[in-house]
Amino acid sequence: MEKLVNKxxxxxxxxxxxxxxxxxxxxxxxxxxxxxxxxECIDVYANLDVIxxxxxxxxxxxxxxxxxxxxxxxxxYGEDVKWLKLYISxxxxxxxxxxxxxxxxxxxxxxDLWSRYLTDDEGLPIVKIHGFGLTGLTLLLRYPWYSVDSxxxxxxxxxxxIYVPRLKGGxxxxxxxxxxxxxxxxxxxxxxxGKHIDTFPKMQKDAIIDYIEAKGYKLGKSTFRKEExxxxxxxNEKWSEKKPTDKKAQRLVETIVEVGIANSYQLRDEMNIIYxxxxxxxxxxxxxxxxxxxxxxSLF
Length: 300
Description:
The chain is globular and about 65 Å long. Among the domains are: 11-150; 222-258. The chain has helices at 16-22, 28-38, 54-66, 81-89, 106-116, 137-142, 152-158, 202-214, 265-282; strands spanning 11-12, 44-45, 74-76, 94-98, 128-131, 147-148, 161-164, 166-168, 171-173, 179-182, 221-227, 237-239, 251-258. The chain is α/β, with parallel strands linked by helices. The strands form 5 sheets. The protein has a 4-stranded parallel sheet. It has a 3-stranded antiparallel sheet with strand order 11-13-12, with no helix packed on it.
């Protein structure tokens, strides 16, 4: 199979967090081999971190470097700051911060790191920082990240929603919390007021439709009906619910009248990618100052 070369910039995460939550392990030699086999396609790759064991994470860093690789070192919430200081003292120019999903006191922790270790006296970053699992607007705008990642854009689209920036003075505003609007018509009888597009006041709904169309997409139209489970789907149809356990029960069929974000998660994914690309463009260029250096909070 022909490999993808120089088509997109790829950042490879080791998958350590997913592995931990699913109770599986990742073999470091297999991870190293995968990177070596595909290095022409990968721009940046993270160390195989061991969440909760910074010593083991450092050991993996050295193993990967001995194999001729240059992985991003990883420092996690709750770890002794000596490990972060070690990475900085060793001259690493790009470091990843992790363990920030559903973390209490996260702003206090990050304020302390950025104030004391990651910026100079003027608030400018002394090292490039990647944020794992981080696309919340408050945290994105508060700190001078070099890069971040998250699966929220995928989850949001698969659950039937898109991100839409706030409209202020006739312009789309990316420095305030966006709308997360359900546009899927998969469950037409379960539309919560103020969340599904059909429940918004006309003026707001028209603005949302304008945004969708300005990005080159359509809302789309579908109709729904029940059919026997033995029914053979047509080209413009798909099952709109899981197969019932009762073999005699009918199953909901969606007929796609017009393809759009209401009936295509792929198109919702595209729109959410566009939202984050536009958000990126709205953020001041890197490097920018950390503006909260006067906050005197220390967790160490």
